[in-house]
Design goal:
mainly alpha; 2 domains
Length: about 140
């Protein structure tokens, strides 16, 4: 099944479906592992439960939409066409390039601050907010 994850050219709807199922399984395992790690390391349990409940809601809604797409052949075909569209790939590449440039600038600033004054430390909540900000930027760039 790992071969479906690494396919470069998806030509049929069944290959697209298998590839999406593999990505779905990996995404769910990583999200649940992140929520468990957050719960085990959180100092402020109210904040951790808020993130976990929010992420759980996202997982639930995403799962329903994902399964409706996979079970409907028309929606599955439209999703495959959308995923293999070259214009969308260019927009996604541009979004990730902008995110990478932002992270590189942020890293440079943090290195200068660390070398001149004192070490900079981040708690999990600030890193989670930064991660979600990057994801929201990607969604904003790829909207229709």
């Amino acid at each position: 099944m790992l071969k479906y994850l690494l396919m470069k050219n998806i030509k049929t709807d069944s290959d697209y479906k298998k590839s999406q199922l593999m990505m779905y399984a990996i995404t769910m395992v990583l999200m649940i592992a992140t929520m468990i790690a957050l719960y085990m390391t959180a100092e402020n349990l109210d904040f951790a439960f808020g993130i976990i409940i929010g992420a759980g809601g996202v997982i639930l809604v995403f799962s329903v939409i994902f399964l409706r797409e996979l079970l409907n052949p028309v929606k599955l075909h439209a999703a495959r066409i959308k995923a293999t569209d070259e214009r969308r790939k260019q927009l996604e590449q541009e979004a990730w390039t902008n995110i990478g440039a932002f992270m590189m600038i942020l890293l440079g600033i943090l290195m200068i601050v660390t070398s001149c004054w004192k070490p900079v430390t981040f708690d999990f909540s600030k890193l989670a907010i930064l991660f979600y900000a990057m994801l929201f930027y990607r969604v904003y760039k790829l909207r229709k």
